[in-house]
Design goal:
Distance between the termini: 31 Å
Strand order of the largest sheet: 3-2-1-4-5-6
Number of helices: 6
Largest sheet: 6 strands, parallel
Helix content: 25-40%
Shape: globular
Radius of gyration: 17 Å
Strand content: 5-15%
Structural class: alpha/beta
Mean pLDDT: 93
Low-confidence stretches: none
């Protein structure tokens, strides 16, 4: 008796830390692109499921929840809350995990301050180097939807090992062989 076993993974996972307006847009775009989207935030007033159609919504401390779920290379973690009590612990857990992408929203100054606090909290330099912040690609957009598009574009580029250069600047086939 012989068996053929073909492993099929589920869809890539997008975890959004912070049920903020940018998270609403990112959840919508992520779900439309086939990601299994979860929004996690400890603030009950922000976590109304109807704000995030197509996403799982979890009212819990993100660091605690992230430690329980088993983060793998097909998981992207986007930290958007702008609240250091939420963001810093979530980033410590995400950066210590196997997540394929870890990004955080904020200005360059916020990024520098965040990195210093994480370093002071004992996060190793090689882990800090994984943090993509400011989050997203420079598409020039300003609205939550345009920002969400730039974030998801960066996630897709990282997931596929691409540099996100314009196609017209490359030569050869558009899609690499699997």
């Amino acid at each position: 008796l012989e068996h053929l076993v073909l492993p099929f993974g589920g869809p890539p996972r997008l975890v959004i830390v912070g049920a903020v307006q940018h998270g609403v847009a990112l959840a919508r775009i992520g779900a439309a692109c086939g990601y299994a989207v979860t929004v996690v935030d400890p603030r009950e007033a922000f976590t109304a499921p109807e704000r995030f159609p197509g996403a799982e919504v979890v009212c819990d401390w993100p660091d605690r929840w992230l430690e329980r779920i088993g983060i793998d290379v097909d998981t992207a973690v986007c930290v958007l809350s702008h609240d250091d009590r939420i963001d810093a612990p979530a980033l410590r857990v995400a950066l210590a995990s196997a997540a394929g992408y870890v990004g955080a929203m904020g200005s360059r100054r916020t990024h520098d301050d965040r990195v210093a606090r994480l370093r002071d909290a004992g996060v190793a330099p090689d882990r800090l180097a994984r943090l993509r912040s400011p989050i997203g690609l420079d598409l020039g957009g300003r609205s939550p939807e345009e920002t969400a598009l730039s974030i998801l574009a960066e996630i897709v580029a990282v997931r596929h090992g691409r540099g996100a250069a314009p196609l017209r600047e490359a030569s050869g086939p558009l899609h690499a062989a699997p």
